[in-house]
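User: Um, what's this?
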Amino acid sequence: ALRVGEALAAVARALAAGSAEARALRATIPALAYAGRLDEALSRVAEAEAAADRAGDTVERARAGVASMHALAKLGRTQDAIARGRGSRDALQAAGRADLAARAELNLANVHKIRGEQTDALGCLERALTGIPESEAAARGTIENTLGETLLQLDRLAEAHGAFDRAEKLLAALPLALAVVVGNRADLLAREG
């Protein structure tokens, strides 16, 4: 994924296609972060933002900001991750991209969970659900699963069951995602005894 993204960015750069370059660079950010190359991921964020700025593409700039959140959180810079996430979410909302703003809310929720701020995470997840269309089952299922995890951490077990029920239905066609929900439900059942 990293090599393909970098090759696409090089082609886009050569063609002076700034938005395409920004998208290709953004696509490499998670690959770098998951490979543990966190500082490189943040450098790539800056490159993607610069490409988006050259193209005048505020949406792509904001999406790079959202992509930065994982690396920032892994580096222990959770407050920076929240600030980047909020700024990116607000820019996406201003650009009329409620769907992408909702994905930023999901990332914000995950950072709040890391920080032990479950109530803040719930607010983000509720906003995320309002921004994702009913037709996007995978995205909604992921949010419902995260909602269930958060409710479980708050010992709101009946509500967690409901969220996991909805997540299972929405993710039924995605075995790996469904396995995560089933594992979370097992944790819930174990807590109930």
